[in-house]
């Protein structure tokens, strides 16, 4: 990293912390500014997706989605779903990483290209699970939580193991 980057970063951080300490920047704006900063560094780290460092994009997307959640939280609390939808906002961050970076990679295997979809879709599934369990009658919710969810994990694990062993034999 050259000295111009370090100098610019130090000035940005100093201004950022000074404005935060003076009360000019409130909490939710801190999330937006930090997220935008990470995305800016990601965009400056290369000319194409192949040359850019995705390590800056991931926290940038997560911080911006946290900012979005903080802005929408009062409305979600009115509908009594804020806790359920928190995970979908984080899942959206991973979907954004896929759409912005990984989808554009060239010469990369599908597994390496599609990795952000796994945590993203898993978090959406977890959001759906939480929504169903908290919104359904306690008896049905308890049945889902205590029995069907662990059975689903067992089935998913067995499928993954079977597929991994069948690939080694081929």
DSSP strand content: under 5%
Distance between the termini: 46 Å
Q: Supply Rg.
A: 21 Å
Total DSSP E strands: 0
The general outline is flat
Tally the helices.
Answer: 7
Average pLDDT for all residues: 86
Summed up, the domain count is 2
Low-confidence runs (pLDDT<50, min 5 residues)?
none
SSE arrangement, N to C: HHHHHHH
Biggest β-sheet: count, sense, barrel? none
Give the structural class: mainly alpha
Estimate the helix proportion, in percent.
Answer: over 70%
Describe the protein in words.
This protein has 170 residues and is mainly α. The protein folds into 2 domains: 29-135, no CATH class; 137-170. It has 7 helices and no strands. The longest helix has 32 residues, at 138-169. It is flat and about 55 Å long. The N and C termini lie far apart (46 Å).
Can you describe this structure in just a few lines?
The protein has seven helices and no strands.
Layout: helices, strands, pairs:
Elements: H1 3-21, H2 27-44, H3 54-78, H4 82-100, H5 110-113, H6 117-135, H7 138-169
Helix pairs in contact: 2-3, 3-4, 4-6, 6-7
Q: What are its keywords?
A:
single chain, 170 residues, mainly alpha, 2 domains, 80% helix
